[in-house]
Amino acid sequence: MAPPVSGLRELRRRRRELRSRMELLIMETQAEVCRALTALDPGASFAVDSWERKEGGGGISCVLQDGEVFEKAGVNVSVVSGLLSEEAARQMRSRGKSLKAKDGKLPFCAMGVSSVIHPKNPHVPTMHFNYRYFEIEEADGTKQWWFGGGTDLTPTYLNEEDAVHFHKTLKEACDKHDPKLYPKYKKWCDDYFYIKHRGERRGIGGIFFDDMDSPSKEEAFQFVKSCAKAVVPCYIPIVKKHCHDSFTPEEKLWQQLRRGRYVEFNLVYDRGTKFGLLTPGSRIESILMSLPLTARWEYMHTPPESSKEAEILEVLRNPKDWVH
């Protein structure tokens, strides 16, 4: 979609280093997803916006708005470096990271690809994915590194066949590396995307993991690569299946209300959003790209019992096992 943040010459020079391979992977993932989305919404196009961060690095934001199929779809890449803010370091230490700063300074490098896709049709689910790599240099010169990420689905209405397809595709990607990973990361996803003040999950989950620093850097990278390659096959068939479904004004209204929940989670709980807002020189437009173009909040809205709206709420309150 645009030249890499680090430049092709620099990436070629250190092409064997994992940081370069990860940057190429996130660039490839961005391009694959953008191509897949424009193939479904040919009248729309992505605005490609390259930006630089004065503290170090930059990114490429690709955003589509007001298409026939997608109301808003963003696929962002960022590769940033510099000194970790005290707020961001405190957030990491709260997760159990032992970070030894030198003169209060912690050099870091972070890179990742992040996407949120909000379709127009309420029968097409919203989808989010993010895959990232983080590296910190401590006072004695040692480097801590870890990967994180995940892919999750947020439908307005429940379609069990779609849920099974989505989860099975992610399970297959995980099982290539270790059959224990999918159940572990599925539960982590259900627990992470939890809107505590509502008592419900943001969606029907998928996989989520963080602080992955084993069994080795290469094996962790290969796992992340498998997950990133599963994004298009887990989601695009669902969009194709439903993007021309008919819907009522009442169904559109319910979609708007569910998007309100999406906003609540992202602004109140999402760790990536918080980290971005706490990082000096971060690009606010790219961080808040995840928010939908439209949403709605109604006072004390409760769907009728035994309705399709009540059906999805039941699953959001009590997550299901979709693959067994």
Strand-and-helix sequence, N→C?
HHEEEHEEEHHEEEHHHHHH
Q: Which shape, going by the Cα principal axes? A: globular
Strand content: 15-25%
Q: Span between N and C termini? A: 39 Å
Which sequence of strands runs across the widest sheet? 1-2-3-4-5-6-9
The count of strands amounts to 9
User: Overall mean pLDDT score?
Assistant: 92
Query: Helix/strand-derived class?
Result: alpha+beta
Percentage of residues assigned to helices:
40-55%
Low-confidence stretches: none
Radius of gyration: 20 Å
Query: Counting H and I runs of at least 4 residues, what is the number of helices?
Result: 11
Biggest sheet layout: 7 strands, antiparallel
Catalytic activity: coproporphyrinogen III + O2 + 2 H(+) = protoporphyrinogen IX + 2 CO2 + 2 H2O
Pathway: Porphyrin-containing compound metabolism; protoporphyrin-IX biosynthesis; protoporphyrinogen-IX from coproporphyrinogen-III (O2 route): step 1/1
Family: Belongs to the aerobic coproporphyrinogen-III oxidase family.
GO biological process, one term: protoporphyrinogen IX biosynthetic process
Can you put this structure into words, describing what you see?
With 324 residues, this protein is α+β, with helices and mostly antiparallel strands. It is built from eleven helices and nine strands. It has helices at residues 8-13, 18-40, 86-93, 160-175, 181-192, 217-229, 231-242, 249-268, 271-278, 284-287, 308-317; strands at residues 47-52, 57-65, 70-83, 107-119, 126-137, 143-154, 194-195, 200-201, 205-212. The strands form two sheets. It has a seven-stranded antiparallel sheet with strand order 1-2-3-4-5-6-9. Strands 7-8 form a two-stranded antiparallel ribbon. A hairpin with a 5-residue loop joins β5 (126-137) and β6 (143-154). The longest helix has 23 residues, at 18-40. The radius of gyration is 20 Å and the shape is globular. The relative contact order is 0.14. The model has no long low-confidence stretch (mean pLDDT 92).
